[in-house]
Amino acid sequence: ASYPWEVVRGSWSGAKFDLVPPDNNMSRVAAEGWLHYDTASALFQRAGLDLEAEKARARTRGFTAIPLRLSASVEIVNTIRRSESRNVMALLPGRTRPDEYVVYMAHWDHFGIDPNLVGDQIYNGAVDNATGTAGLLALAGAFAALPERPDRSVAFLAVTAEEQGLLGGRHYTENPIYPTANTVAAINLDVLNTAGPTNDVTVVGYGNSELDGYVEQAATEQSRVVRPDPEPEKGFFFRSDHFSFAKKGVPALYVDPGIDDAARGEEYGLAARADYTANRYHKPADEYDPSWDLRGARQDLQLLFTVGYRLAASDRWPAWNEGTAFKATREAERPPTP
Which end of the chain is more exposed for a tag (fewer CB within 10 A), N or C? Predict the structure, then answer.
């Protein structure tokens, strides 16, 4: 499949923004942005408002939006190029219900080369997401080595152009090889743990679906606990490829490394997470390091194998929880059995 370069990025005075294309599945404005706190505070002051006071008011029942009565002018000079890339998929056919699918997925792309940078110009993407792609291959090998295939089919999907707006995942779900109505669940691998074993595992979007129960059972068997995303304000559930499946109603699971380091504790885990985000995330410095402790990655892959295998060996269809935005879409495509 070919993908246009659809997202134009820019920045000004402490803000970053994207110009986005029309999306048939979501209501989108022409320009979307992230503002640093200081910039947002100054913006509110210019409108005669206090940011902290308005944040508190927004948490109260009956809050309604208020106009800032400010305007902004944006001028963009850009070039558009068309590039071609591909999703790659493999299938292990199910033994008794081959037309029902459990999908593991990981994005194999990153940002390429930036000739404008001084020094290292290569965005290696070693953690994000060579680790997830390697994990996908490891899981495929583990399923292929089973003495007997599970009842349901297990698919392994390496998607492209995640970093350019989830384009590969969106393309697949809009043109699925295997029907989304017959897809039991999508399990996403986006960044594996390279810091060693943890006492916990993170579920991004915890509370959305019955898939949480599968993770909790597998984690208990490892003497670990499940916790929600410690940084929900960053919207990670909406920023990786499983989200394209969720929009089509497929229960989607996104597991992140835990933060309670088994040897050094939670404070160390949070500090390591912050260090990666500040110094390597989406930067040329995201390189392979021979000092990585991949026992944590193995721990999480064993958990995800258990979750996927139990889904593939079962006849149950995990559902979205009440109140989630995706439940109605799933039930319209695949009505619940009485």
Answer: C
